[in-house]
Amino acid sequence: MSNDFIFANDPQEPAKAETSNTKVKWKLLIVDDEKEVHAVTRLALMDVLFEGAGLEFISAHSLAEAKQQIDQHPDLAIALLDVVMETDDAGLQVANYIRRDRENRFTRIILRTGQPGQAPERAVVMNYDINDYKAKTELTSQKLFTSVMSALRSYRDIMRVERQRQSLQRRLDQINDLLKHNYPQAWQAVQQQQQEEDDT
């Protein structure tokens, strides 16, 4: 592993504004073929607290392992993906697996690469549905902390909107059921109107 990836000392440690409790932890998937990367990532983020909850670290060292972990943990908050592993684009394949195969639009994807030339930032950001791109050589522990905190905030907000959407859908379904059983003629009229709007 390149020595450049060993995190540089930051002038200040992140402040701990929150205290740990029994809240469910935020799941963070680390996908990298180098064990040292997993170790330093855990070390840099082990004290992170967000809304009273810490991080649960999940590791994968290959494309196959990453897919397995993604299948087992559909509620991943963040995926930290190395681009180059067993192939030059293994991390990009993981990103596609999350977005296309699993149809997961919620997990925040942060790409990390030690070989930017293999996956130029502009091309990757344009062609893959990722949320951040970092070169390992410039990624200090403070920058990683900042990226992870930003991703957690984004994930939290997205999930709030999704829960609200689901709640509204349940209410609409309940209203629809009541209308169907108690006012069948009105229900049929609504269905016909909806069909006409869909056809236009």
UniProtKB/TrEMBL annotation:
GO terms for biological process: phosphorelay signal transduction system. Keywords: Phosphoprotein. Residues 27-151 form the Response regulatory domain. Gene3D superfamilies: 3.40.50.2300. It comes from the Bacteria. The modification 4-aspartylphosphate is found at residue 82. This is Response regulatory domain-containing protein.
